[in-house]
């Protein structure tokens, strides 16, 4: 897979470099001509490194039970590749000290990295992948995240907030804050340091949209790194129940592991976390983590979310029911108003000859009206009117006007006088004045 070139490349002075002796072991192991004796000499050249590597390989996490007494013995028993992985972990662990990145939650960063490492290791055990290699790239796959803050120290106040995000949301935030992501920076780092491809690929490409084009073992390493990232998020993010659901889906999609197998692997990761922390001298905190407790907490949060959803659904149903009830009541009242309005219109009167009328309103009630009647002197009074607007206000004004016309028109036969009287009555008590 081709490395994606970015505009800016960190210069050597921009980033710290791995400690010399530990990284010399990494470089030496990449040389096919290196002998076991020569490799042992390189390690023993630094007494502190020798003691640390012997302490690590004799820890219960590696299962040798204190049987390795010397560096040459470790080289012959573990092999160059395993020693290289241990040396690399030691080198990068000691690369950044707490006082060199003030304010950054360095201990929490390494604890999260340790979760990725043990999760990668248990996935490797389940899928037949080299376990120590998976542990190594799991521990180091987010090292680029640490280096982002090394380069942009003004962003250190954002570190706590980002630490609680799941992998996908954190990646989005990195793009916003830094203009690049930790895996993009990691690709440049591993290239500059000359790390072997079997480690460089999962460290630099575990967030790639696809692993097509890689060899089977390389793609498997990237998939394990991706799955380990989501599994670790179950223990590190604020939205634990959401991370758990996503982790199960990712592991099933990329590794084909069922939910039952996933839960067993998570339980194994929890069991190995503290031992791994002691082996790598990474504090794991005083509180013991139980997978059952994690599940209970996640299920409790899920249940609370479900209850909240059910309550919202119930409230919505109540609101819809109330809306329907009010709509039905309003429809009934409008129907009654329509009946009242129709009763104000003149009934058919055959004594008036060919005079007849019909009113079809745009709505149930309206401001359109007509009226006609026979006066005492034998005249027929007609009125056809349209109130501006529609609906209830127009209908009320229509009712008032119609009643006034019917009452006054029988006594006042002069159209001008009648119109003036109607106008004064309507202006005196304007319906709109109460609104």
Low-confidence stretches: 1-7
What is the CATH H-level superfamily of the domain at 96-289? Hypothetical protein af1432
- The SS-based structural class is mainly alpha
Give the strand line-up of the largest sheet.
1-2
Largest sheet: 2 strands, antiparallel
- Percent strand equals under 5%
CATH architecture of the domain at 96-289: Orthogonal Bundle
Average of pLDDT: 82
Say how many strands there are. 2
CATH topology of the domain at 96-289, anyone? Hypothetical protein af1432
Percent helix range: 55-70%
- Name the shape in a single word: rod-shaped
How many helices in DSSP terms?
A: 18
**What is the ordering of alpha helices and beta strands?**
HHHHHHHHHHHHHHHHEEHH
CATH domain class of the domain at 96-289: Mainly Alpha
Radius of gyration using CA atoms only: 41 Å
Q: Span from first to last CA?
A: 73 Å
Fold and architecture overview:
By secondary structure, this protein is mainly alpha-helical. Among the domains are: 96-289, Hypothetical protein af1432 (Orthogonal Bundle); 345-434, Phosphatase 2c, domain 1 (4-Layer Sandwich). The chain is built from 18 helices and two strands. A two-stranded antiparallel sheet has the order 1-2. Helix 14 (240-255) crosses helix 16 (291-344). The longest helix is centred in the last third of the chain and has 54 residues, at 291-344. It is rod-shaped. It starts with 19 loop residues before the first helix and ends in a 7-residue tail after the last helix.
């Amino acid at each position: 897979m081709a490395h994606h070139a970015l505009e800016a490349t960190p210069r050597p002075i921009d980033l710290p470099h791995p400690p010399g002796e530990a990284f010399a072991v990494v470089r030496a192991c990449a040389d096919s001509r290196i002998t076991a004796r020569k490799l042992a000499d390189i390690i023993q050249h630094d007494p502190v490194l020798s003691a640390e590597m012997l302490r690590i390989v004799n820890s219960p996490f590696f299962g040798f039970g204190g049987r390795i007494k010397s560096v040459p013995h470790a080289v012959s028993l573990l092999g160059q590749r395993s020693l290289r992985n241990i040396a690399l972990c030691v080198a990068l662990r000691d690369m950044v000290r707490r006082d060199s990145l003030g304010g950054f939650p360095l201990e929490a960063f390494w604890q999260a990295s340790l979760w990725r490492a043990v999760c990668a290791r248990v996935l490797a055990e389940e899928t037949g992948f080299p376990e120590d290699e998976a542990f190594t790239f799991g521990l180091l796959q987010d090292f680029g995240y640490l280096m982002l803050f090394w380069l942009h120290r003004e962003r250190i106040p954002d570190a706590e907030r980002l630490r609680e995000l799941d992998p996908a949301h954190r990646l989005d935030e990195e793009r916003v804050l830094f203009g690049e992501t930790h895996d993009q920076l990691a690709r440049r780092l591993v290239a500059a340091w000359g790390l072997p491809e079997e480690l460089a690929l999962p460290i630099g490409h575990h967030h790639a949209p696809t692993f097509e084009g890689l060899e089977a073992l390389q793609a498997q390493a990237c998939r394990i790194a991706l799955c380990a990232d989501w599994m670790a998020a179950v223990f590190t993010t604020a939205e634990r129940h959401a991370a758990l659901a996503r982790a199960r889906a990712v592991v099933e999609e990329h590794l084909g592991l069922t939910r039952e197998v996933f839960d067993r692997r998570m339980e194994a990761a929890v069991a190995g976390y503290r031992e791994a922390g002691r082996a790598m001298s990474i504090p794991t905190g005083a509180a013991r983590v139980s997978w059952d407790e994690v599940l209970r907490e996640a299920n409790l949060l899920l249940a609370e979310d479900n209850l909240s959803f059910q309550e919202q659904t119930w409230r919505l149903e109540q609101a819809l029911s109330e809306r329907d009830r009010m709509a039905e009541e309003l429809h009934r009242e409008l129907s009654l108003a329509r009946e009242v309005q129709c009763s104000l219109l003149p009934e058919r009167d055959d004594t008036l000859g060919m005079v007849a009328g019909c009113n079809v309103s745009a709505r149930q009630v309206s401001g359109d009206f007509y009226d006609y009647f026979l006066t005492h002197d034998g005249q027929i009074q007609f009125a056809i009117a349209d109130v501006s607007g529609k609906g209830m206000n127009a209908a009320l004004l229509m009712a008032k006007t119609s009643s006034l016309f019917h009452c006054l028109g029988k006594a006042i036969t002069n159209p001008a006088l009648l119109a003036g009287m109607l106008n004064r009555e309507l202006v005196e008590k304007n319906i709109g004045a109460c609104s």
